[in-house]
Write a structure and sequence with these properties.
538 residues, alpha/beta, Pnp Oxidase, Chain A, Rossmann fold, 28% helix, binds ligand LZDS7PUF, binds potassium ion
Length: 538
């Protein structure tokens, strides 16, 4: 059990499954025992909790991440300006291939596998399994077709239902092996005659893997017909309620590799996944989703061709190029599909129920399951929320740590009432905790402080929350100085202003600049060094 620093005492736990919210209440004076039968509470009509649907609009200050031209959405990095990257002509694309598979020692199998995986990843990023389950991969005679075979295999493992049309098979072992792999998974191979004229009747995604950068002239049979069916899709889509989409690998098939869709009567893919570097025709791509994949380009190629390519963050296989399409927020909705939440399965002890759900979240491998929104309001009654990390819980309360100088600590010193909210996406569950917060002993704070990594301890000293500092460099310098000071491994003293109050934020917060007393944005950095930028009120 972790030490207790901040505790919510009186609390209401609200367990929610698929957003059907049930309320569990504890007696207002004690958090340790619950005498109230859970089932009686569960029978309340949701109307009692929500009343009629109200439309709220919040005007005020908004915090958001700093936009520095590139940002991450669902782990995929976005390159906002497509003109900032290099485009290859047909000769360069072939030359890169030759160097990779010549002096640089790559095999085509390897590159194809990585290329195919990046395409499958991009598809899965954009087209969800529920709405885009049936995928037809149309494969051509060359390596682009081979990429398509690899994509079909990965999509199968991602949970999609792939089909393959591969009318001009290549007899080389690489390709026969890829076909065998798909056949062993039971993936159906369809002939051109098996396919409906209106491909959207049977398929949600059409993966265009017919031609890549070696395409020349005009498409020959049977690809002329297949390309025409993809062109016709647009007309069918206009009358279809649920349009199907085309995802092209490297080049939209039939397009001129450098000039693009010269006559304007070619296919109009919704997604293009360029490999290695986009080819010139990609500049003419007008679909919604342009990705770059093929994370295998070594620095020697980058230097030789003077390539400007975005970096792939973390373990991402692809990067989005250009802005994601604007989404009508009012039309965004999910169908929450999760096992029924049954009263008889709810533990009468809300803490045990919380433990059960926390175990589920851990088993599901969700990221930062202990992240929770903490909402406080000072004496002015104006609420503010931020994410903090749960560091332990028991029947006395839920524990987190913070800096006494922070706004949340100040709020709590004026008004002990606060709420916590966990939201576990993927399990469709949320837990609400409401109550009052107490300070805890200095001893407990001290104990927890020294259990943290040294970098975080130094960060806590460097970050005097809610104070104005000259700039970010000042913060870094302060950190470096402290790091040097404690480099001998000596005990790092806990600063007086840290601990003993509601707790440990994901990082600490420093007001970097004060611009007309406007609102702020926080920036995540290493070792809990965070700072705020002021942004204008809107
Ligand atoms: N380095 C990388 O990024 C990697 C990319 N990969 C993928 O490989 C393709 C390029 O592969 P390549 O085999 O060189 O070429 P294609 O897939 O474009 O296809 C060549 C075959 O298509 C025939 N072809 C060409 N034009 C036509 C046409 N008008 N009608 C019918 N058939 C045509 C051609 O036959 P020819 O007799 O005409 O020469 C070939 O049979 C690249 O774009 C990526 O997708 C690798 O997978 C990994 C490394
Ligand atoms: K293609």
């Amino acid at each position: 059990m972790l030490p207790l620093l901040g505790k919510t005492k009186t609390m209401i736990l609200t367990y929610s499954s698929s957003f059907i919210t049930h309320l569990l209440a504890l007696p207002p004076t004690s958090a340790s025992t619950s005498t109230r039968p859970v089932s009686s509470l569960l029978h309340r009509s949701p109307q009692g909790f929500f009343g009629s649907i109200l439309r709220y609009k919040l005007r005020g200050y908004c915090s958001s991440r700093v936009n520095r031209g590139e940002f991450m959405a669902s782990n995929i990095k976005v390159v906002q300006n497509p003109d900032s990257i290099s485009y290859l002509n047909q000769r360069e694309a072939a030359e890169v291939d030759e160097i990779l598979m010549g002096p640089l020692g790559f095999s085509v199998d390897q590159l194809m596998e990585l290329a195919g995986l990046s395409v499958a990843t991009a598809i899965a990023e954009v087209y969800n399994l529920k709405d885009y389950n049936r995928v037809l991969t149309i494969c051509g005679p060359g390596n682009n077709g081979g990429d398509g075979l690899v994509v079909a295999r990965h999509l199968y493992h991602f949970g999609y239902k792939p089909f393959v049309c591969y009318p001009k098979r290549t007899a080389k072992p690489l390709y026969t092996g890829l076909v065998t792999q798909l056949e062993s998974l039971g993936i159906p191979f369809l002939s051109v005659d098996d396919l409906p004229m209106n491909l959207s009747e049977d398929f949600n995604i059409l993966v265009d893997a017919m031609f890549g950068f070696s395409f020349h002239g005009t498409p020959r049979a049977p690809f002329d017909d297949l390309i025409q069916r993809l062109v016709n899709l647009q007309n069918y889509n206009e009358i279809n309620k649920k349009p199907s989409v085309i995802a092209s690998i490297d080049i939209p098939s039939g397009w001129h590799v450098e000039e693009g869709d010269t006559n304007g009567d070619g296919i109009k893919p919704d997604m293009l996944v360029s490999l290695t570097a986009p080819k010139l025709c990609a500049k003419k791509f007008c679909g919604s989703h342009h990705f770059l994949g093929g994370r295998f380009v070594p620095p020697s190629i980058v230097d030789k061709f003077n390539l400007h390519l975005p970096s792939y963050p973390g373990s991402c296989m692809c990067v989005r190029i250009g802005k994601a399409p604007q989404i009508d927020i009012s039309s965004m909705r999910e169908n929450y599909i999760s096992p029924e939440f049954r009263e008889e399965e709810v533990d009468p002890d809300p803490f045990l129920q919380f433990q059960k759900w926390f175990d589920d979240v851990m088993a599901a491998g969700l990221k930062e399951p202990n992240a929770m929104a903490l909402c406080t309001a000072g004496k002015d009654g104006k609420p503010s929320s931020r994410m903090v990390l749960l560091k332990g819980f028991d029947k006395d309360g839920f524990v987190w740590y913070t800096n006494y100088g922070s706004r949340k600590a100040k709020d709590l010193s004026e008004n002990a009432n606060a709420s916590l909210l966990f939201y576990w996406d993927g399990l469709n569950r949320q837990v609400r905790i409401e109550g009052s917060v107490q300070k805890v002993s200095e001893e407990e704070s001290e104990h927890y402080f020294h259990s943290r990594p040294r970098g975080s301890q130094i960060g806590a000293i460097a970050s005097k929350q809610s104070t104005v500092i000259p700039g970010r460099d000042f913060l870094h310098q302060e950190y470096k100085d402290l790091e040097a000071k404690f480099s001998d491994g000596a005990l790092i003293p806990k600063p007086e202003y840290w601990g003993g109050h509601p707790g440990c934020m994901i990082g600490y917060v420093i007001f970097l600049k004060k611009v007309d007393g406007k609102s702020d944005v926080w920036l995540h950095d290493y070792h809990s060094l965070h700072h705020h930028y002021k942004i204008p009120k809107f």
